Every structure is written in C-alpha cells, then in structure tokens.
C-alpha cells in the first residue's frame, strides 16, 4: 500500500480515556483497511481494530517527555489516544492515516474489499431484502390516486431520485417535468408515505426556485394534483423544515419557498430545524463534553445544554409530531425542503457532512425510551446501523443517489447491511415487543409538553466505548434469554407430552407391539436424557436455577462482556475485525466500575476481573 | 385540642377536582380529622358515590387559594343567604401541593366555603403533635398492632457478627437513653471496651453519639463505624477513652480511615463552636479523608428548586438543562454515591476499617453508611434486608425524620430543620438499581412508597426523631408498622423486581455524570404519562412469569405425573 509510510510501530501506549494513569503497551499496525493495536500483555494480546473509514479526525499533539501523542476520533464516537515514542514515527503514522482516512475513490472503501464469503445468490438476496416497491404496496400504493411514474427512468428528470417515483395519477409527465425545473436540483414533489386509512400522504421535494416573485404553472398544478389525490381534503400543508429566516435569505439566491397567493388551498408552515452547519457544530460541542476527563455534574450539564444538541433533537421530534398529527387530521402534506438531501451524502466535502442520520437514529431511540414495547428492534440495532453507516463495510450507504450507486455497480460489488443484520437478528430484537401489543397497534403520541424534559442524553451512543458508564446488566439480553428459555421449555413440554401420550398408548396396546415401542422408548429416552429430562425433578429444577448464570450472574460483571460475547457469537470474522468487538475486549480493563477518580489508589481493573472469573 | 375546632366547613357540594393528567371530576368534598374526601355526585362524570379522592391531610404541603368574584353585582344582604352569594358567581380555587409532589386543584363554589376549606386544611396539615397524627388512629382490619415492629432486632444482626468474631459485643448501656438520647437502647461496640469507657467517650462526642458499629464486612472482618464529631473545640481537647475506643478497633500496625462528610475547612471551623475532628497526633492509626456532602438548608433548597424546574411547563428544552444544573440535585447524588463508594472501597479493597461522621452524625453520616452497605452487602439488596437496613441505619440510628420530613418541596412555611436526606438516599439507591437492574430484589415502586411514607403515612414507622421519642409516644404500641403492611404477600408483589437474581458481588456503580440520571419516576411521577412504561413493566413481568410457568408445570406436575405413571416408571427403570 503506497499510502502506508509506517506499517508497524512498537512500544506504543494506548491511553485509557478516563484515567490517564492507565495505559497499555503494545504494537501499532497500519493495514490497508484498519489501524490495529495489539497489546504486549502476553495472556490477553488484546486487539483494538479501527477501520480507516471510521476515522473522523486525527490530531498530533505536542511531543512530551514520554513520546508523541496521537489522538484519533472516530465517527462512531470512539476516541483513541496513542503515545508513540519517536516523533518521526508519529509523524509517519499521522501522514499515512490522514491519507487512508480520506479515500479519494470509491474503490478504496472497505466494502469493495470486504468479503463475507457469501455466494452470488446470497449476495443478491441480501440486496433484495428491502424492496421499496413492496414498501409502497404495504401502504396500499399504487391505487386510484397514486401511480408509479417512469418519467425519471434514465435519471433524466432528477439524478438524485430513483428511477421509479410515485406521483398522483393526475400529474402528467409534462407537469412533473415542468415542476422539476422549478425545484432545486430538480427534486419535484414525490410521494414519501401514504396512509391508506384516510388517504393522507406525505410528499417531499426540494425548495422552489421562486426567488422574490417567480412562478411556475406546472409546479402549482403539481401541488393541486397532490391535494386532489386525497378527495377528503380541502387543502394542503406545505411544511418547510428551515427556520423562516433561512428560507427568506434563500430568496435572494433565487430559491425560497412557496407563495401562498400563487398556490390555491395551501397552508404554509415553517419548522425551525437548523441547517447542517449548526447541527454539525452542535454535535461537535456535545462530543467535546463527552470527552471531558472526570467532569463534574455541572460541567456536564452545562456543556450539554451549551451544545444545544437535545434542543435540536426536540425540534426534529416536534416537526415529526406536527406532521404526524396533520396526517391524522386527514390533510395533505408536501414535505419541505432539503430533508432527504443529506441522507446519503456521507462522503466528500467536510462542510457537506451533517449528522442528520445520527439525529434520525437518536430520535428513534428517544421514541423507544418513551414507548418501550413499540419497536421490534433494540438499542443495539440502532447503534450498529450507525456504526455501519460510517464503516463503509457494506454498500448500502454509499454514494449520493441511486444513479451513482448503479453506475458503481454497488449491488454487484458489495454486500448489503440488511442481510447481515437479518442474519444476526436475534441480537437486535426487543424482548418487550409483541406484534399484538397495544403499543404496536397504533400511532405513537409522544408527549410534547411539559414532558420535553424526557429527552435524555444518549450515553449508550455517544459514550458507547466507555462501557463503565453504562448499566452493568443488560435487561434486554436477560429478557431475550428468558424468552428463549421459555420457548425451549415449552418445546420440551411438548416433547414430554408427546412422550406421555406414547407411553399411555403403549400401555393400552399391551405387549403386542412392545418390541416396537421399546425401540421407540429407547429413542425417546436418549433424546430426553440429552435434555436432562429423564432425571429427577429436583435436578431439573436445579438446571433451571443454573439458567440465570447465562444472564443475571453474568450480568454481575460488565455488560461489556455480554456485548463482546454477542459480537463473537453474532459476527462473522470480518465484522469482528471492526471496532465493536475490540471495544468489548477493551472494556475489561476499561474504567473502574467504582467510577471517577474519586477513589484512592487502587487497581480498579480488579472489579471486572473478579466478575469475569465468576462468569467463567 | 379537638380536630373539630379546626374544621370550619366539613362538606361542600359540587366541587370540581382536577389533577395533572386526570379528567376533572365533580363531587362532594368532605373534610375529616385526617382526610380530604371527594365522592362524585350523581350525574357527574364519575360513578355516583365513588370516592375519587382520599387524601391524607398530612400529605398536603402547601395550600394556595384564589378567589374569583365573578359578579360585581352583590345581591342585597337583607335576605342574602350564602347560597345567593354563590349564585352571584363567586367561587374559589384551592391548589393543594402535596408532599409526594402531586398537585391537585379544587374548584369550590362560594367564596366563603373556599376560604374555610383552605384554612381548615392548612390548620389540620400543620398539626405538629405526633400523638395527634393519623397513625395513632389508623386501625386496618387485616393487620395486628404489634406486627412488624420487631422484625429486625439488633440482637439478630449482632448474632450474625458474633458467629464470625468475638471482637464485638451488644451493649445495653443506653437502655434508658441517658448516654445518648438519639441512639437506640442497644448498640454494637468493641468487646474489649467497657460501658464505663463508652460513657466517657460519649461525653466527648456531639449529642453523645460515640463510635458504634454500623457494618461488619464478613469477607475480611473490617468494620464501618459511625459517630458524631468529637468535641475537640478551640483548645484541642482530647479524650483518652475515645482514643482507646477507636484504637481498639484496629490491630497493631493496622490503618483505618475516618471519612468526614464535611470539607477540611468546615471541620476546622467547627472547632470554634466546640466541635472539630480527630487530630492525627491523637489518633495516629487513623487517616482522615474529607468528602463534603451537602445537608440542611442548601439541600432542601436544591430539592425545592428541582421540583420547581420539573413543574415549570414554560421551560424550553434549552433552558431545562441549565435549570437542572443550577439546582445541583444531581451533583448531590453524585457526591453521595462517590462518598459511599469510597467507604465501601476502603472496606473491601483497602481492607481497612472506616469511621464515618459529619457534625451531628444523624444525616450525611447515615446516608453514607447505609448506601455503602447497599453497595457491599447482597443481604441489604433484598426486600427484607433493605427494610432491616432502613430500620437499623436510619430509624433506630436516629435520623430525625419528624424534623427533616415535616415539609416537602412546595411548602411556603419558613423552613426549620427540613432536609431531604432520606430522599437523597432513595435516589442513590434508584441510581444503583438502574445500573444493576438485576441486583436489587425490590423495584422503583418500593422506593416511591418509602418516600411517600416518610413524609406522610398511615403507619408509625417514620414517626418521631429517635427511639427515645418513639418510646415516649408509645409509637410501637399504638400505631401499625409500615413493614407489616408492605410484607403482606399481595402488597409485597407490587414492590418486587421481576428481574431480580441474587448477586453475591459488590456492586460498584459508575459515578460519572453520564451515568447519573434524573429520577424521573419520582420527580415526573405526576407529570409524565406513565402508561407506556407501566405496560413495559407488565410485559417484563409477563415474560419472566411465562418462563416460570412451563418450568413449574413441566418440572412439577407433568414430570411427576409421568414418573408416577407406571409406564413411565418402567421406562425409567429400563
């Protein structure tokens, strides 16, 4: 690899992020895809793997007597602090990483070299996992009012839209093309969500190129067509997700927002979600707070507020709730501007990077906290998706549009994350979810006031790698194990029942078929003994008692360990190469569970060690 | 005093009751000596005759009244009955702010009635005489008076220690409460120290609270002691008996830690008022650590500010966090947890004995010793063990509940000695339960019930300030024990943690700010919708029970049935 100036550095120290006193001595390796740190400690040889694509910034700090510190911040919120003995080595590592972390060609991304050893068919299956047409079918589309339009078949109208777009039946190609010319990046209004219960829908588009006075007949007709696609509604809400000031400022650049006078029967609404630059700064500030070394409660709360992050999260939630309410009130919405813009746009100009997807994921988490039974998946699912959005290990989140993805033949050359997640779905299930539970049946109504204080800092995400901060016992894992156990027991019960029936039958049938039954009995006896069912009830009971050793007593130690095992269990070797797994291992010596430097001299690693021994 | 003198108006018809998150209900309001009742009237929104409100008046923290005189027209007074005045449209709203942080509104027709009701509630809720309180009148049918009062005798706790070491003895030198008025009759002290020495040592400690055993750590035989500050004073007085008492605890060459819950500065200043701290020169084996914990008025104000912020609906998201920060409650939680961890660490990791004290030794001292035991001792994390801990380390140890919990966060009365130390303790235990969701046998609901009962209760458990007062008031003879009620099988079920599984290890919590959360279940109890969280809890319960059901069935009946089945037996014998 021509970019690696220094493939291996010895005697590097990896600092513990919380207590700087603790550091692990080891060797640093740079490979084409990963930064790897292997500890010298002979029993463990603990490894820390970081994908180049996860690196968000590298900082070389002033050399001290002990060496040259290098700080690596990752997009999945991991922070790695290394001390390299020689300044020159550090510089070489620094220069190499700067290049490796900023690939210029898509082909350099990990997903093009990542090979989970699936055959072609499995790969194709993976890509068919989420079928948008099927999603629309689920919503009841196409129907009398909505249809698929092929107007964008060669990406001729809008290159950032997919080829198949759902539009009102009454919108002719002429109207669509006309409307698209009046919209930023030609993103004309297209269907996003349809509610078949009341014909209400959400459409989305970019901002109109209205400037101060420009009009477009076709665009006005387009919105009319959308309104008329819901016969029960008299008007259409147009929601602009920007603060009004920003929208007005855009008019000077020939863009702007719909003039209510020109469009009949629309209601215009601004929702002040700040732009990507504000959001990026906000996230940045919040992460700085997370990085503070043993902050006081005040430092933390003050910093969290100052970052404004939770305020933005709430603004986004408010917007979502407003739209959901309108939808319930049987109206129409043409969803505002630039919302989807940044969704796939995760590469390239740093100024264009925005945490929109992080915010979406966090909003889902905030909802999960308020509605614990409503989601089929758990927190880990969200965290792993976030991880893989930036890992570039799977092709799903590459490029900016379907067009680009097709040109790059993403589906033929990379693998789909959804198939990977599906394979390990057991790890991502919410044990409290039941498809027949009331919380899954209806729309969720999150509380807005006065419960805005319910929005919480998500340490599971932003302090994801500081395992000592998190609850030591995972309720989710425990309940999943309980569920599994219940199922097993029920199955065993069935086997037993069957066996009982057989035995009774045998008794009835008498000696005639005894030889046959004997065979069968042997068989059953064998299978039963493997299940330890033929033993006495006491033993069965004690077997039950020993069950929790799989969860609660394991939970006595760090939840981190559970995570590690999960990853070992759930992940293919290649995923184990990502930093998830490494974090799990790292945890074991991570932070003293007894917490922040409040305590006098002691080896705080002991606690978890002790616990680990016990679990083994 | 007769209660009837305090009740100016006993019943009012057509009163509208509203609380946050509940539909308003109209009914008849009725005041009795200890309760405020509202039963809905026919034609109202509720079922006729249903009691919609049954509020212990002791639970009322603040009464706010607002009278609207809608009609400026007053009917001529000549034949004016109160009813006429009422027809003129005057009415009043009483806002009841309760100690459990609930807020209720009563809309009362008639200005006079409104004012009467308000002043009656005010008078009844501020009756300060212990013997007039409801526990002395409450006689539930299914409980016996003596039940629950002697569940956790110190004798029993001592026997557990005695089984492992003979270094300690149970002394009854305080049987008539003369040596220390705030200690119980029995205390556990070093076996080698005579009662006489103890009496002298007691004179050297504020309020006579000489060092006694609080916890024995069976893993390594170290102990946690608690006391009040030594009365060194400006002249640096010494007390040989106190030095002997503490010296006996440590073997030759052993080191102990004194955790002072005041700052070094504050401890030094206390000398000016006759208090102080143990000087190194007189106690050479003991190393002092200062961990300042807030108590008294600043803590009460922190509580008041937090509750204010939680109830401020106008607060926007971006100002909420700075309000949360400025009330400093979470800082107090963090400090209390850290200090308890420090004490636990000294015992378990440093293998050193610990003496904990602040000034009086009845507030932050008990907070630290009790919390450290929850962290260290799996026994304290069970339902029964936790009750025993509260009995031993809070109630008998002389935390002045009557003074500290006289008023809660809403009261407009001048603050006297109120301070939510017990609430702070419950909050810390909640933090532990959040970080170790399987390790505590009880759930949030028990902590909430304890908070409610500490401030206003049907039971006598939290009455008075110490055992001496309880004896004088004959609390144990004339009131029911909270524990008797909680431990009834049906009741107990509500407080158990369905995920509990015995965890023999020390539970070391994280005290980083990211790990400390606001206890929403308490501070937002009446504000946030609890339905979805309740559903989640029920679902958890269902899952755990579902596991137990087939297990029981298969392990128990089915298998035994199959074993008792002759065919099965022959099959097994084969």
From TrEMBL, chain A:
Q: Which UniProt keywords apply?
A: Coiled coil, Hydrolase
Domain named Myotubularin phosphatase: residues: 126-462
- Coiled-coil segments: 479-506
Sites where the protein binds substrate:
275-276
The record's listing under Gene3D superfamilies reads: Pleckstrin-homology domain (PH domain)/Phosphotyrosine-binding domain (PTB)
* Chain residue ranges for the region called Disordered: 532-616
Cross-referenced CDD domains: PH-GRAM_MTMR7
The secretion signal range is none
Which InterPro entries would you find in this protein's record?
A: MTMR7_PH-GRAM, Myotubularin, Myotubularin-like_Pase_dom, PH-GRAM_MTMR6-9, PH-like_dom_sf, Prot-tyrosine_phosphatase-like
Into which family does the record put it? Belongs to the protein-tyrosine phosphatase family. Non-receptor class myotubularin subfamily.
- Protein name per UniProt: Myotubularin related protein 7
Write down the species.
Cairina moschata
- High-level lineage: Eukaryota, Metazoa, Chordata, Craniata, Vertebrata
TrEMBL record, chain B:
Its cellular-component GO annotations read: cytoplasm
Query: Which classification does the entry list for the species?
Result: Eukaryota, Metazoa, Chordata, Craniata, Vertebrata
Q: Which family does it belong to?
A: Belongs to the protein-tyrosine phosphatase family. Non-receptor class myotubularin subfamily.
Record Gene3D superfamilies: Pleckstrin-homology domain (PH domain)/Phosphotyrosine-binding domain (PTB)
Question: The Myotubularin phosphatase domain covers which part of the protein?
Answer: 148-523
GO molecular function terms noted in the UniProt entry? protein phosphatase binding
Its name, as the record gives it, is Myotubularin phosphatase domain-containing protein
Q: Which GO terms describe its biological process?
A: negative regulation of autophagy; phosphatidylinositol dephosphorylation
Signal peptide positions (record) = none
Origin species: Cairina moschata
Q: Cross-referenced InterPro entries, in alphabetical order?
A: Myotubularin (IPR030564), Myotubularin-like_Pase_dom (IPR010569), PH-like_dom_sf (IPR011993), Prot-tyrosine_phosphatase-like (IPR029021)
Q: Which PROSITE patterns match?
A: PPASE_MYOTUBULARIN
Give the residue ranges for region: Disordered. Answer: 547-574
């Amino acid at each position: 690899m021509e970019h690696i100036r220094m493939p291996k550095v010895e005697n590097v120290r990896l600092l513990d992020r919380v207590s700087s006193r603790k550091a692990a001595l080891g060797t640093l390796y740079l490979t084409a895809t990963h930064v790897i740190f292997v500890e010298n400690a002979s029993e463990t040889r603990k490894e820390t793997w970081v994908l180049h694509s996860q690196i968000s910034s590298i900082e070389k700090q002033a050399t001290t007597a002990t060496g040259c510190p290098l700080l690596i911040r990752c997009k999945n919120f991991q922070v790695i602090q290394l001390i390299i003995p020689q300044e020159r080595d550090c510089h070489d590592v620094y220069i190499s990483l700067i290049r490796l972390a900023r690939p210029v060609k898509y082909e350099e991304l990990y997903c093009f070299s990542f090979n989970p050893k699936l055959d072609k068919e499995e790969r194709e299956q993976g890509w068919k996992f989420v079928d948008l047409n099927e999603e629309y079918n689920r919503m009841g589309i196409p129907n009398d009012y909505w249809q698929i339009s092929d107007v964008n078949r060669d990406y001729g109208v809008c290159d950032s839209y997919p080829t198949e777009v759902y539009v009102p039946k009454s919108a002719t190609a002429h109207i669509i093309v006309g409307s698209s010319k009046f919209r930023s990046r030609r993103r004309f209004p297209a269907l996003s969500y349809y509610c078949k219960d009341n014909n209400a829908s959400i459409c989305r588009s970019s901002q109109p190129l209205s400037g101060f006075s420009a009009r477009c007949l076709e665009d006005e007709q387009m919105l009319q067509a959308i309104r008329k696609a819901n016969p029960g509604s008299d008007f259409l809400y147009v929601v602009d997700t920007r603060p009004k000031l920003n929208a007005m400022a855009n008019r000077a650049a020939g863009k702007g927002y719909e003039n209510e006078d020109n469009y009949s029967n629309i209601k215009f609404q601004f929702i002040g979600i700040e732009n990507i630059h504000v959001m990026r700064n906000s996230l940045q500030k919040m992460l700085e707070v997370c990085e503070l070394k043993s902050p006081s409660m005040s430092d933390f709360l003050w910093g969290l507020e100052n970052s404004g992050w939770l305020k933005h999260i709430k603004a986004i939630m408010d917007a979502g709730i407003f739209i959901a309410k309108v939808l319930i009130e049987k109206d129409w919405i043409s969803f505002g501007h630039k919302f989807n813009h940044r969704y796939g746009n995760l590469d390239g100009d740093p100024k264009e990077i925005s945490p929109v997807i992080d915010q979406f994921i966090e909003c889902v988490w905030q909802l999960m906290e308020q509605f614990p039974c409503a989601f089929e998946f758990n927190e880990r699912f969200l965290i792993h998706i976030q991880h893989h959005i930036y890992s570039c290990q799977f092709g799903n989140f590459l490029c900016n549009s379907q067009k680009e993805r097709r040109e790059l033949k993403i589906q033929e050359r990379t693998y789909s994350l959804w198939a990977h997640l599906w394979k390990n779905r057991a790890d991502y299930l919410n044990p409290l979810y039941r498809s027949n539970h009331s919380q899954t049946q209806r729309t969720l109504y999150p509380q807005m006031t006065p419960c805005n204080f319910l929005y919480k800092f998500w340490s599971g995400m932003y302090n994801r790698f500081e395992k000592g901060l998190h609850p030591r016992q995972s309720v989710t894992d425990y309940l999943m194990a309980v569920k599994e156990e219940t199922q097993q027991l029920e199955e065993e019960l069935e086997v037993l029942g069957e066996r009982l029936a057989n035995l009774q039958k045998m008794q009835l049938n008498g000696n005639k078929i005894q030889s046959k039954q004997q065979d069968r009995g042997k068989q059953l006896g064998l299978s039963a003994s493997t299940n330890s069912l033929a033993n006495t009830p006491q033993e069965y009971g004690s077997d039950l008692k020993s069950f929790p050793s799989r969860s609660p007593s394991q939970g006595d130690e760090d939840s981190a360990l559970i995570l590690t095992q999960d990853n070992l269990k759930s992940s293919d070797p290649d995923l184990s190469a990502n930093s998830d797994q490494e974090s799990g291992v790292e945890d074991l010596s991570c932070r003293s569970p007894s917490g922040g430097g409040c305590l006098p001299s002691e080896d705080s690693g002991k606690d978890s060690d002790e616990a680990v021994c016990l679990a083994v | 005093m007769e209660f009837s003198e305090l009740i100016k108006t006993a019943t009012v018809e057509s009163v509208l009751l509203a609380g946050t998150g509940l539909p308003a209900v109209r009914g008849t309001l009725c005041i009795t000596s200890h309760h405020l009742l509202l039963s809905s009237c026919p034609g109202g929104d509720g079922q006729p005759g249903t009691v919609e409100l049954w509020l212990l008046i002791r639970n009322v923290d603040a009464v706010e009244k607002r009278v609207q005189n809608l009609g400026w027209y007053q009917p001529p007074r000549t034949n004016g009955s109160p009813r006429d005045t009422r027809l003129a449209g005057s009415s009043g709203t009483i806002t009841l702010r309760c100690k459990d942080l609930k807020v209720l509104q009563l809309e009362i027709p008639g200005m006079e009635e409104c004012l009467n009701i308000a002043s009656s509630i005010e008078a009844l809720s501020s009756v300060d005489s212990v013997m007039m309180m409801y526990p002395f009148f409450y006689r539930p049918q299914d409980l016996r008076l003596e039940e629950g009062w002697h569940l956790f005798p110190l004798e029993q706790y001592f026997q557990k220690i005695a089984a492992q070491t003979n270094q300690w003895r149970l002394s009854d030198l305080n049987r008539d409460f003369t040596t220390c008025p705030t200690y119980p009759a029995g205390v556990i002290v070093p076996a080698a120290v005579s009662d006489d020495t103890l009496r002298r040592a007691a004179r050297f400690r504020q309020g006579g609270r000489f060092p006694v055993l609080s916890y024995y750590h069976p893993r390594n035989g170290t102990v946690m002691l608690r006391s009040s500050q030594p009365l060194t004073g400006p002249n640096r007085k010494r007390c040989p008996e106190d030095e002997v008492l503490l010296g006996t605890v440590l073997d030759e060459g052993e080191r102990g830690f004194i955790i002072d819950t005041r700052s070094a500065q504050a401890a030094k200043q206390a000398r000016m008022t006759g208090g102080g701290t143990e000087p190194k020169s007189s106690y050479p084996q003991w190393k002092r650590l200062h961990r300042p914990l807030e108590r008294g008025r600043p803590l009460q104000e922190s509580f008041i500010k937090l509750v204010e912020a939680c109830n401020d609906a106008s607060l926007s998201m971006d100002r909420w966090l700075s309000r949360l920060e400025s009330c400093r409650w979470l800082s107090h939680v963090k400090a209390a947890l850290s200090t308890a961890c420090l004490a636990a660490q000294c015992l378990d990791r440093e293998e050193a004995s610990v003496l904990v004290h602040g000034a009086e030794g009845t507030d932050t001292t008990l907070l630290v010793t009790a919390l450290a035991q929850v962290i260290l001792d799996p026994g304290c994390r069970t339902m029964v063990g936790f009750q025993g801990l509260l009995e031993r380390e809070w109630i008998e140890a002389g935390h002045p509940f009557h003074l500290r919990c006289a008023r809660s966060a809403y009261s407009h009365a001048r603050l006297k000695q109120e301070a939510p130390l017990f609430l702070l303790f419950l909050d810390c235990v909640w933090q532990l339960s959040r970080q170790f969701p399987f390790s505590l046998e009880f759930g949030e609901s028990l902590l909430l019930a304890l908070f409610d009962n500490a401030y206003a209760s049907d039971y006598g458990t939290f009455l008075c300030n110490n055992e001496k007062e309880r004896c004088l008031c004959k609390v144990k003879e004339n009131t029911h024990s909270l524990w008797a009620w909680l431990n009834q099988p049906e009741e107990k079920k509500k407080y158990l943690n369905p995920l509990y599984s015995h965890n023999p290890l020390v539970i070391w919590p994280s005290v980083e700010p990211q790990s400390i959360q606001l206890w929403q279940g308490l501070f937002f109890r009446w504000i946030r919708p609890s339905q979805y969280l309740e559903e989640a809890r029920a679902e958890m319960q269902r899952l755990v029970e579902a596991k137990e059901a087939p297990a029981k069935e298969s392990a128990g009946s089915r298998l035994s049935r199959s074993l008792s089945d002759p065919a099965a037996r022959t099959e097994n014998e084969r």
